[in-house]
Amino acid sequence: MIRVGRNDPCPCGSGKKFKKCHMGREHELPLETSEEPSLEEMGANIVSLPRVSYGRSIEMADALDIRMLTGRSMGITWVDLEAYADLSFESGGLSGRGEGAVLVNIHKTLNADPHNLYIAVSRDIEDGTLVHQLAHALDFLGGSKLFPGTLEPLAYELNIPVEHLEHPEEFGYWQDFLMRKFSVRPDADDAIIAYLYRQQLLLKGREIHEKNAFILKSKSERILQHLSGHSEEVDALIRELPGYIGKRPAAR
């Protein structure tokens, strides 16, 4: 099976790097050689990965009535992140945030298992990362219908941060819901998303689907300007949270 790294040329021949083109949309690539896995092989490999119960993963999933919340009859299956990363077709495809978890692209597993979304998690998974990935799952099923890891080409085309596209208003709603439900303290990045959600500044899923360049670029710039203009307020909000990379004031 051919390994494609994030910064390798995309196999589609576009001349772009894989991460700027078909990363997260590997199912759209033509299968030109026997060395490349078919979509069926990808799905079979993923659904056969070891099930895990790291951290509070099972507890959180079991506490959610996904059908009631989203109107979709889908479950959540947790698999080992290291085993998932070892699949050769995934060598450069781990996307989304952090190394602790990734929501597996449903196009890879839909035929093999149409009843579950797969989330690959690490042994040392933290509650905040679990909530983040569950928010992506609920957002896909009953929100913006967007999938993390598939929006880099649009972000590249519009020259806006991919984070603005991957965390729309609907994602903000689900993240807020889950943080409250499971009493989870956000890390610095998630706290900023929550702040932007409360300020009603996040992009809407509908706007992203429509790909209106003027609206998306204008609203993305509005987010950046707001964060810049309220930097002290935002810094105070996230200063004591995990993942903060700014300069903390010296203890007195």
Summary of the model, kept short:
By secondary structure, the protein is mainly α.
Structure description:
It is a single chain. The protein is mainly alpha-helical. A three-stranded mixed β-sheet has the order 1-3-2. α9 packs across α10.
Q: Please state how the strands of the largest beta sheet are arranged side by side.
A: 1-3-2
Mean pLDDT: 87
* Strand residue percentage: 5-15%
Percentage of residues assigned to helices: 40-55%
The helix-strand sequence is: HHHEHEHEHHHHHHHH
Strand tally: 3
N/C terminus separation: 57 Å
What's the total helix number? Answer: 13
Largest sheet: 3 strands, mixed
List the helices and strands and how they pair.
Elements: H1 39-47, H2 57-62, H3 66-70, E1 75-80, H4 81-86, E2 101-103, H5 106-109, E3 116-121, H6 127-142, H7 152-158, H8 162-166, H9 169-181, H10 188-198, H11 205-210, H12 213-229, H13 231-238
Parallel strand pairs: 1-3
Antiparallel strand pairs: 2-3
Helix pairs in contact: 6-9, 9-10
